[in-house]
Amino acid sequence: MGVEICVEGLTKSFGHQVIWQDVSLTLPAGEISVMLGPSGTGKSVFLKTLVGLLKPERGSIRIAGQDITRLREHDLYEVRKLFGVLFQDGALFGSMNLYDNIAFPLREHTRKPESEVRKIVLEKMDMVGLIGAEEKLPGEISGGMRKRAGLARALVLDPEIILFDEPDSGLDPVRVAYLNQLIVDLNAQIDATFLIVTHDIASARQVPDNIGLLFRRELVMFGPREKLLTSDEPVVRQFLNGRMQGPIGMAEEKDAAQVEQELAQIDDSAAAPAMTPRLLPGSGITRPPRWQTIAERERELHA
């Protein structure tokens, strides 16, 4: 079962450069949340701060009853065991085959016998569709397979929280669709808390329970998927519709007068897409009560 993450008043800077400030949100236990934002808004920095790799200047991150911003290194190490992380490139060791890459956390952090390690590794490889590829090296497989191998490695210690740092980067649209379905299926199977950083609007519309948007050094909004997809907030509408008109510019922020002029020229009634259907666990995946409720709500929304 996943655990809740409660973030209050979080601020992160590098020197005099404020990355984001006063970020407050709650990632509900067992749900899938997505964090969006233009390039350079500190989404990956947010992930690294959540797992304790970076220390914020102010604020708190409460996980399993503990504020990890105030923990000593030894105690922080224990809390990190709750996490699995899928990095952008899979972060696999190039000289190790997939089996040894996925087994690495078990051999490094546990004293399990090799027979049990093998059972766990093959189970996770099966979950991500990699059975038969155990002996392959990372350089011999596609980007999509490397992502799945990285995901299997993130799963081997049975984490209660899984962080995905741009899992769709470098993948073609078909592989992104397969990966999105895999993420939804895994959430239904293991019930962990998922947080995904992405630029992919189709993924953000289909996959999560909750969506957040970082812009101009702050969290513009965070809430249920339906709330964000129907929001009138200009930056949210601009980002989710992938258009030039709005507060987000190419290189720097636009001034208020320019933004107002651009927004006045938009016919939002014509531009707003219909509510995208939510991805549901695939056939053969037993749907826990939460997913049964989601399926019923989707049927009502799109009836």
TrEMBL record:
| Taxonomy, superkingdom | Bacteria
Q: Which GO terms describe its molecular function?
A: ATP binding
**Region listing for Disordered, in residue ranges:** 268-290
Domain ABC transporter per the UniProt entry, residue ranges: 5-241
Enumerate the UniProt keywords alphabetically.
Answer: ATP-binding, Nucleotide-binding, Transport
Q: What is this protein called?
A: ABC transporter ATP-binding protein
Residues spanning the membrane: none
Q: Report the source organism.
A: Streptomyces ficellus
Highest lineage ranks of the organism? Bacteria, Bacillati, Actinomycetota, Actinomycetes, Kitasatosporales
Q: Which SMART domains match?
A: AAA
